[in-house]
Amino acid sequence: MRVLVVEDNERLAQLVADGLQRRGFSCDIAPCLADADDAIASAIYDAIILDLGLPDGDGIDWLTARRRHRQVPPAIIQTARGALEDRVTGLDAGADDYVVKPVELDELAARIRALLRRPGPRAQTMLEAGILQFDTTSRIAHCSGRQMELSRREADLLELLMRRAGTVVHRDAIEHAIYNFNEPVTPNAVEAAISRLRRKLDDVGAGGCLHTIRGIGYMLRDNGN
Questions:
Q1: Which CATH number applies to 126-220?
Q2: Identical topology for domains 2-117 and 126-220
Q3: Long-range contacts of 176-182 (CB under 8 A, 24+ apart)
Q4: What count of other Cβ atoms lies within 10 Å of the Cβ of residue 107?
Q5: H-type helices in 70-104, by residue range?
Q6: Which CATH architecture fits 2-117?
Q7: How far apart (Å, rounded) are the C-alpha atoms in residues 178 and 190?
Q8: Tell me, what DSSP letter sits at residue 168?
């Protein structure tokens, strides 16, 4: 699961991002609303952690406008404003949850997971492609009942391929999906990630389902043929 942390306090933003990454999330940081807009335009996020007092505007106004004009990912406001009136305003503006700083990272991670389990027009949480199953909430994959041992990045890669099973996923789309904006990416990083995932698919009897489309990208075929 990929999360965007919109927070202008550099130290706090990094603490939140690092803590969530240790708990299985992939995180990007946006220190202002303009950067948040750019991030949302270039990557797909499962959730947003949104501060309110930002250098280029108020998070409430930003969230209200985004909810009015287009769908945005589920949003959790994380702010020092703890008055009842502030919480009501935030939720009425379109926030899916509201937490007051400081918040324990275990609780924040649990709130994100709970948010993504809610019914509604969200991405499905259980993916299936042939003999493969992937729970996007627990980040656990199974093949014919056998659990796969996946790193966070391997789980992100498998989720992407399963969501688009039967279609070619371009190499650039994979790079944007599994690497954070601030991570250095070597020229063969995607190929190495694919190779590691392919070996683990082979180990659980799903060999042959992951195909290389030379010069374009990769495709997961649910029948393994």
A1: 1.10.10.10
A2: no
A3: 176/42, 176/43, 177/2, 177/43, 177/44, 178/26, 178/153, 179/153, 180/26, 180/27, 180/28, 181/28, 181/39, 181/43, 182/28, 182/29
A4: 10
A5: 84-92
A6: 3-Layer(aba) Sandwich (3.40)
A7: 9
A8: P
The full set of domain ranges for the chain reads 2-117, 126-220
Tell me the residue type at 22.
R
Whole-model pTM above 0.70? Answer: no
Separation of alpha carbons 7 and 49, rounded Å = 8
Any bridge partners for residue 6, and if so which?
30, 50
Pair 220, 164: CB distance under 8 Å: yes
Could you list the pLDDT tens digit for every one of the 225 residues in the chain? 789 999 999 999 999 999 998 888 889 999 999 999 988 877 778 899 999 999 999 999 999 988 877 667 899 999 999 899 999 999 998 899 999 998 999 999 999 988 877 755 455 568 888 889 998 777 889 998 899 999 988 998 998 898 888 889 998 888 877 877 767 778 889 999 999 999 999 999 887 899 999 989 999 986 544
Whether residue 134 contacts residue 126, with contact meaning beta carbons closer than 8 Å, is answered with yes
**Whole-angstrom Cα distance, residue 176 to residue 188?**
14
**Which parts of the chain fold into alpha helices (H)?**
10-22, 33-42, 59-69, 84-92, 105-117, 152-163, 171-178, 189-203
β-bridge partners, 2: 26
